Amino acid sequence: MSWFTKTFSSTIGRKIVMSITGLFLCSFLVVHLIGNLQLLASDGGDAFNVYSAFMGTNKVIRFMELILVLGFVFHIYDAIVLTRRNKSARPIDYAEQRPQENSTWSSRNMGLLGTVILVFLIIHLYNFFVPARFGGLDTVSIDNEVYDNLYAEVIYAFSQWWYVLIYVLSMIALAYHLIHGFQSAFQTLGLDHKKYTPFIQKFGYAFSILVCLGFAAIPLYVFFFF
């Protein structure tokens, strides 16, 4: 086994990979939110359908999709491995242990939050990504060009209360996941300094709340006002 494999299969190595992939996925969330905001344009979905077509056909974007998938895979896999290692290292909790006094709720439940997000991701991909990439959508003409009408598919999904509920609850789980994960990533990468850490904590908190609030607001707005 090479030094590279040994390093990144160790506990600290896996934490570094989780941190890097986590921050990369944060950048994806920003781009994805900007794209989703096209749903609110008062043009009958033209902007969103054009945006979706661009994301599905641009070669650079398609290549970045592969990087994104790898990011998700490494992030999830390392999370599972680290969780198992932590449990095996301490199979029986101490009787007098009071974790609530030494850690936040989100840090103690990252596995649960991650599971909720993973289940939502599978549902989300099945409803939108699969039809958009592999067909099955109706088409619409925009400026004499034919586009898949993903907008209609999204609006239909957001008109169903159960899907909106799942979406909003998942965004709450994601917010808690990010609140802990954002700060933890910088700490793992050694970017922990008494001068800058308070700013990183505040920025991470604001980022987590605002991004997830933005995602949650879209299906709620569609459900109540469309």
Automatic annotation (TrEMBL):
Presence of the UniProt keyword Transmembrane helix in the record: yes
Gene Ontology terms: cellular component: membrane
Transmembrane portions of the chain: 16-40, 60-80, 110-129, 161-182, 203-224
UniProt-listed InterPro entries: Cytochrome_b-558 (IPR011138), SQR/QFR_C/D (IPR034804)
Alphabetized Gene3D superfamilies for the sequence: Fumarate reductase/succinate dehydrogenase, transmembrane subunit (1.20.1300.10)
Protein's UniProt keywords contain Membrane: yes
Swiss-Prot/TrEMBL keywords: Membrane, Transmembrane, Transmembrane helix
Superkingdom per UniProt: Bacteria
NCBIfam families attached to this UniProt entry: sdhC_b558_fam
Record's protein name: Succinate dehydrogenase / fumarate reductase cytochrome b subunit
